[in-house]
Amino acid sequence: MQDRITSIIKRIVDGDNQAFREVVESYQQQAFSLTFRILGDEEEAKDAVQEGFIKVWQSLKSYRSDYSFTSWMCRIMAHAAIDRLRKIRRQKEIQLDPDPERMNTLFRGNPDVTMENKEIAHIIRILADGLPVKQRLVFLLRDIQGLKSVEVQAILGLSETRIKSNLYHARKSVREKIDRIDYPERRQW
Amino acid sequence: MVKKKQENDRDFSLQKIVSLLQNNEPHLEDLNEIPKNVMQLLQQEESKQLSERDPASPVIRYLILAQRWLVAASVCLLVLYGVEEFTVVSKLNSLEKHTSSIKVDPSGILTRQLILKGLSDISLQQRFPARFKLLVAESNRFPSKIATSSIVILP
User: Fold this and answer.
1) Chain A 107-166, residues with CB within 8 Å of chain B CB atoms
2) Site from B7, B9, B15, B28 to mutate, A interface, most A CB atoms within 10 angstroms
3) Comparing B126 with A146, which gets the higher pLDDT?
4) Which domain holds residue B151?
5) B123 shares a domain with B95
6) A13 close to A61: Cβ distance less than 8 angstroms
7) pLDDT at B39
8) Domain residue limits, chain A
9) What is the ipTM of this complex?
10) Are residues B107 and B152 in the same domain?
């Protein structure tokens, strides 16, 4: 995979833009998943992915092939999403009122339930909106996206201790939020 | 015990929601949308980069050069004006100091008038013939004395 991507990058650097399309097609789902989970909004996530890919294209000359392309690209995508998140937070504070019936449907005893993008966004925003940016990012990247601590450190530029502390506070706040949501299934757990 | 159970329940709730979100990855419905938009943005970016690299025409280059020269000249003029202004103000200050140090006696008043009001030679000669004679003689011998010292009045 790494060899394939190295040869594609060589083609892009030589001026073959169609090769870049291949990269976008191969990695768009992964990038979208990451930005979506950070932003909790489908359209904003798509815009962040597009911006991120342009930044990837601009920075390709500085990419070193001994480094994992996926990690490098994820870092750029995460930064594009973080920039967008800061803009959104400045522009509008999203007010969400958790709907007990909706939560009831989503959590009906089966954690393997399939959710639509809208529903995922709804839950992410219920849990993460209102958290300080660093706590939100650490929680979403570490717990929801499932990135390793080292990867989160590389993306956010925070030490391991600060990541742990942010994660602790984020989880605490999220637990308190969950406690405040009152729906029948949760009482049965 | 009850508190611990509550804590476990809460952890379980969080775990359950987290695993629910982990299992449900957001998915793109239209797989062509992002590549299409990215390629369009890429073309725009390329044309922007090309126009930035494009060498300017000779007229534009001349205009840019002229503009830079004008800016540099304006800055030089401003500096020159500042220096001149400073020199004039400092000279005026020192003049004021000198005139205020002249004794207030008839000869001193004459000197001050001479310096500040610029009385003409003729009017001085007519009004104070003896003093004018002395003043001319003194200032011929010591050109700077006129401003710095008082003049002895002849009996």
Assistant:
1) 107, 111-115, 117, 119-121, 123-124, 127, 143-144, 146
2) B28
3) A146
4) 103-155
5) no
6) yes
7) 93
8) 1-92, 94-189
9) 0.80
10) yes
CA dist A81 and A49 (Å) reads: 8
Residues B113 and B69 in one domain: no
Query: Residues B91, B134: one domain?
Result: no
d(CA B10, CA B5): 9
Instruction: Report the percent of chain B where pLDDT is more than 70.
Output: 63
Residues B107 and B144 both lie in one domain = yes
C-alpha of A162 from chain center: 19
Contact present, B128 and B110 (Cβ < 8 Å): yes
Q: Are residues B113 and B153 in the same domain?
A: yes
Classify domain A1-92 at the CATH class level.
Answer: mainly alpha
A20 contacts in chain B (CB < 8 Å)? 38-39, 42
> How many domains does chain B divide into?
2
Assigned CATH for A94-189 = 1.10.10.10
On whether residue B147 sits in a domain, the answer given is yes
Angle at Cα B81 formed by Cα B77 and Cα B82, nearest 5°?
A: 120
Query: What DSSP string describes A107-146?
Result: TSS-TT----HHHHHHHHHHHHTTS-HHHHHHIIIIIIS-
Looking at the structure, tell me whether residues B145 and B132 fall in a common domain. yes
Lowest mean pLDDT among A34-43, A129-138, A153-162, B105-114: B105-114
B82 within domain boundaries = yes
Same domain, B113 and B154: yes
Q: What are phi and psi of B11, to 5 degrees?
A: -60, -40
As a three-state string, the secondary structure of chain A is CHHHHHHHHHHHHCCCHHHHHHHHHHHHHHHHHHHHHHHCCHHHHHHHHHHHHHHHHHHHHHCCCCCCHHHHHHHHHHHHHHHHHHHHHHHCCCCCCCCHHHHHHHCCCCCCCCCCHHHHHHHHHHHHCCCCHHHHHHHHHHHHCCCCHHHHHHHHCCCHHHHHHHHHHHHHHHHHHHHHCCCHHHHHC
Task: Give B-chain residues touching A46 at CB under 8 angstroms.
Answer: 33-34
